Amino acid sequence: MSSLSRIVRGRTSKPPRILCYGVEGVGKSSFAAQAPKPIFIQCEDGLDELAVDRFPLASTYNDVTSALSELATQPHDYETIVVDSVDWLERLVWDKLCVQHGVQSIERVDGGYGRGYTHAVSLWRELLEQLNVLRNTRGMVVLLIAHSKIERIEDPELPPFDRFAPRLHRHAASLIGEWCDAILFATRRVRTQTEDSGFGRKRNTAHAIGAAGGERVLRCVGGPGCLAKNRYGITDELPLRWDAFMHALTNQTQERKSNG
């Protein structure tokens, strides 16, 4: 069969693959719980206060792959798969490699020199392929939760700066970031103001905007302050709610269709 006969034309609509990350307590898991019919694979203990369906706490890499396999092969009506969180899942990936190589640290896998992190990419690819199966054959939304870290960025065109990013090793972060359709940064909206600290000195202070520690928002486009992206054309800062994200996604999809 000719390759030309297998060409796919136009856009195809598939469930989104999302990585939502942010600081502890901002509401990432609550955001995921609002997705349609979610089932959680919990890699860290912290879902007791949420009324959600979940697998038992995963203690090994194989616990996670077994849960994904069951979702792919067994009857169910779940519509969203949530992994909470992928930075804790990364520890299970490293643990599996340590057992395979008979060492105590990822730094010592295959003789060290960073080879452990390279081997980890292969296991991450296996996990992402299982998630692809759920998305492509079961029509499930894929939602990955992660904590945040502050990383230093060295840009040849700009002075060095710090930004928020998912708390993952750079190899895993790069692979997962390319795979996802959207990387969303969950945070609280704040404002800064200059105050007099005495003796003619000034200082900048941050103040939360809104009640209860600040309005919780999703940043959908990256900048100097955070890593974020999406393939849907969403540029607005959104409330940290699933319906707000889906409303923005639907509007952008309809606009793109109307523009051809």
- The percentage helix is 25-40%
Largest sheet, strands/sense/barrel:
10 strands, mixed
CATH architecture of the domain at 13-186, by name, is 3-Layer(aba) Sandwich
Mean pLDDT: 88
Number of DSSP strand runs? 12
First-residue to last-residue Cα separation: 30 Å
CATH homologous superfamily grouping of the domain at 13-186: P-loop containing nucleotide triphosphate hydrolases
In short:
Strands 1, 2, 3, 4, 5, 6, 7, 10, 11 and 12 form a ten-stranded mixed sheet that branches. This protein has a two-stranded antiparallel ribbon with strand order 8-9. With 260 residues, it is α/β, with parallel strands linked by helices.
Helix-strand blueprint:
Blueprint: E1 17-22, H1 28-33, E2 38-42, E3 53-54, H2 61-73, E4 80-84, H3 86-101, H4 115-138, E5 141-153, E6 161-166, H5 170-179, E7 182-188, E8 190-198, E9 201-208, E10 216-219, E11 229-230, E12 238-239, H6 242-258
Parallel strand pairs: 1-5, 1-7, 2-3, 2-4, 4-5
Antiparallel strand pairs: 5-6, 7-10, 7-11, 8-9, 10-12
Helix pairs in contact: 2-4, 3-4, 4-5
Walkthrough of the structure:
With 260 residues, the chain is an alpha/beta fold. The protein has a domain at 13-186: P-loop containing nucleotide triphosphate hydrolases (Rossmann fold). Helix content is 33%, strand content 27%. The strands form two sheets. Strands 1, 2, 3, 4, 5, 6, 7, 10, 11 and 12 form a ten-stranded mixed sheet that branches. A hairpin with a 7-residue loop joins strand 5 (141-153) and strand 6. Helix 2 packs parallel to helix 4, helix 3 crosses helix 4 and helix 4 packs parallel to helix 5. The chain is globular, with a radius of gyration of 21 Å.
